[in-house]
Amino acid sequence: MNNRLDSLKDKSKKHLVIYLMAGDPDFKTTEELIYSLAKSGVSAIELGVPFSDPVADGPTIQRSGERALANKITIKDVLGLVSKVREKVSTPIVFMLYYNLIYSYGTGNFVDDCVKAGVDGVIVPDLPYDEEKEFYNHSINKGFYIIYLVSPTNTTDRMKKIVEKSRGFVYYILLKGVTGAQKKLSSDFEFLAKIRKCSKIPVFAGFGISTPAQSAEVAKHADGVIIGSAYVGIIEQYGSKKKQLLLESGKFINKFLKTQTKNIKEKQ
Amino acid sequence: MALPNSKGFFGSYGGKFAPETLRTLVDDLEKEYRKAQKDPAFKKELDYYLKYYVGRPTPLYRADRLSKRFNNAKIYLKREDLNHTGAHKINNTMGQILLARRMGKTRIIAETGAGQHGVATATVAAMFGMECEVYMGEEDTRRQALNVFRMQLLGTKVIPVKSGTRTLKDAMNEATRDWLKNVDNTFYIIGSVAGFHPYPEMVRDFQSVIGKETRKQILKAEGKLPDYILACVGGGSNAMGIFYPFLNDKKVKLIGIEAGGLGINTDKHSATLTKGRTGVLHGSKTYVLQDKNGQISETHSISAGLDYPGVGPEHSYLKDSGRVKYDYVVDNEAADACIMLSKEEGIIPALESSHAVAYLEKMKLSKKDLVIVNISGRGDKDMGTIMEYVNKK
Ligand SMILES: Cc1ncc(COP(=O)(O)O)c(C=O)c1O
User: Fold this and answer.
1) N or C: lower Cβ tally within 10 Å for chain B?
2) Dihedrals φ, ψ of B220, to 5°?
3) How far is A74 from chain B (nearest CA, A)?
């Protein structure tokens, strides 16, 4: 069984994963942003499904979710969107959402419908690796990847178990706190190195990265970086001025991709 | 078998649905709580403060005029309104702050709806000289301005929450976010039997002082156990507290009363166990009021303390098992009960507790019935709301 996320094992480059909320500023724009992200060469797209109570998110992504909720976006809508973009896009796409949405949809149906639509995996910030066995087993059976998060506060013992259960990649949370761009990053790269040693799959780091320079720094220690709030900030800033948004989004991605490539070259 | 199990489940409800960053913290809290449970010094310290600072034990009062009104059924009131700060909430905040001190934490955070839990937290934080910040929905800071001032007077910083529906659930979200950022020095005092394990168990244990006293008091006064115990259910802590020591006394009928708001067939109520379905909110699997897509509902109640879309997981378990019956009363019934008890007994109950009092009207009581109503708090904080209600009538 092939999963598009397996492409992330490619070690010849540092991967860039971009997060955006489905339906912010509107559904049509999300679709166009996905085309543009795919074309620009990001390694994977993390698509948020809005939830009324996003405890792990900072203000930027909270606001983005509120805009999407105002547009009445549901899981079904986002599945439909992925089906549609799959006609043109082969970039891995994962959902990021809170567990109540999955539970309410029905865990079995959720996995089946994701696979059918071409969603490759899911990140659920409030679901520990050792809860909801049925959801876990069904995902494994269907080749659908659950990406678990490791926090700098985790014990080594628990980290190892999370890494063992994770599929596609391991999501390392760079900072104690919620999502949101930070001016300064103070991260435990030693723990990150330990995680990479334990993991057979790539380890990507996210939460708080806001500039290409920070991204390049983190990329020295991880297999890839995940950018969320900083990118969502662009969407918030340009909103429904669609042309300009696409332009600025392109510029933003290029800046990050460039430093990342440079980083690889320096290493070689 | 004692519940919850080792993973924090009451049957299929509960658990530790916490973001990983909180995991070590919540695990540490659980370990520390287990140690404290076994340590006689902890119990001694808690008992000391409950007696000399909180004013326990609270009386179990035989309400004769109330009894007469209900066909001479014998009705007793458990007077949690006589606790320091005016509600049962301080039983729990005292327990948790002692635990926080044992863990070497220096900063306290809490969420609050009506402000009663916020005040109870601010109070113990002041008494132990600890830094304290309380998250409160912006909407609630306006509805409960006096409690905001009380907390400030006690040296607590009140942070208005502007996200989501700007009420209790959002305050809980924001307090959780604070905790995620400040895992090293901060202790989160959750105000009800909700949240991730071990909170539902721990808060129940701290609140079960209510039921333990009640049991002794009713046996002494009547020589037998009651037929009914009534308590209001928001998150469910005063109800769990009084029910818990009676769970094995199968003859004692336990009834939890939720807020029916403007009616349970409107979208303006908080009757989670009556109208909700299983979901995951604030770290535990439990009944939740939500729409068909799993978005958490906006709730309503005349009493801010019951205005919450979730409920403690143990209540979900007790509902399914049938051990506790859950029902509701609507806003007007609760307000009328508040006025009625004030006139009959000279006791002005909190609007939350008034829901339990109002249920007496629905019970068709007779002379042979022995009933206990938990008066979880006093009504001073609700005078504005009651005034408005009376003027409208
Ligand atoms: C007096 C009083 N009773 C009851 C409640 C509801 O909480 P719980 O259901 O946890 O007892 C509150 C909450 O603020 C309260 O202040």
Assistant:
1) N
2) -70, -45
3) 7
Shortest-distance Cα residue to atom 4 of ligand 1: B352
Q: How many C-beta atoms lie closer than 10 Å to residue B392's C-beta? A: 7
CA of B78 to the centre of ligand 1 (A): 14
**DSSP 8-class letter at B57:** S
Q: What is the pTM of this model?
A: 0.96
Optimal mutation site among A97, A153, A154, A173, interface B, most CBs of chain B within 10 A: A153
Please give the helix or strand (H or E) that residue B230 lies within, else none.
strand B228-232
Mark residue A52 as left, alpha or beta (left: phi above 0; alpha: psi -120 to 50; beta: remaining): alpha
* Most A CBs within 10 Å, among B5, B9, B12, B20, to test the A interface: B20
Please answer yes or no on whether B164 and A53 come within 8 Å at the CB atom: yes
Q: CA-CA distance, A217 to B141, in Å (whole number)?
A: 43
B20 near A CB under 8 A: yes
> A176–B181: do the CB atoms touch at under 8 Å?
yes
Centre a 10 Å sphere on the Cβ of residue A12 and count the other Cβ atoms it contains.
5
Q: Name which of B177, B168, B112, B195 is nearest B297 in CA terms.
A: B168
Which residue's structure tokens are 């809490």?
Answer: B110
Catalytic residue list contains B89: yes
Residue whose Cα lies nearest atom 12 of ligand 1: it is B305
- CA separation, residue A96 to residues A159, B95, B106, B178, B209 (Å): 20, 37, 34, 21, 43
Which residues in chain B have their CB less than 8 angstroms from residue A95's CB? none
**Alpha-carbon gap, residue A41 to A10, rounded angstroms:** 14
Q: Report the complex ipTM.
A: 0.96
Q: Tens digit of pLDDT for each residue in A132-176? A: 999 999 999 999 999 999 999 999 999 999 999 999 999 999 988
Residue of A nearest to B22 (CA): A153
Dist. CA B61 → ligand 1 center (Å): 20
Q: In the predicted model, what is the mean pLDDT of residues B249-269?
A: 98
Atom of ligand 1 nearest to the CA of B114: 14
CB B271 within 8 A of CB B259: yes
Virtual torsion, Cα B148, B150, B155, B160, nearest 10 deg: 0
Q: How far apart are CA B164 and CA A99, in angstroms?
A: 18
The angle, 0 to 180 degrees and rounded to 10, between the axes of the packed helices B331-345 and B351-358 is 90
Q: Where are the domains of chain A?
A: 4-267
Those residues whose C-beta lies under 8 Å from the C-beta of residue A233, and which sit 6 or more positions away, are: A60, A181
Give phi and psi for B9, each to the nearest 5: -105, 135
Please, what CATH class does the domain formed by A4-267 belong to?
alpha beta
Taking an 8 Å cut-off on Cβ atoms, the answer to whether B19 and A75 are in contact is no
Q: How crowded is residue A3: how many other Cβ atoms within 10 Å of its Cβ? A: 17
Nearest Cα residue in chain A from B9 = A131
pLDDT tens string A11-69: 899 999 999 999 999 999 999 999 999 999 999 999 999 999 999 999 999 999 999 99
Round to whole Å and give the CA distance between A265 and B304: 60
What are the DSSP E strand ranges found in A22-110? 44-48, 93-96
B371, B230 in Cβ contact below 8 A?
Answer: yes
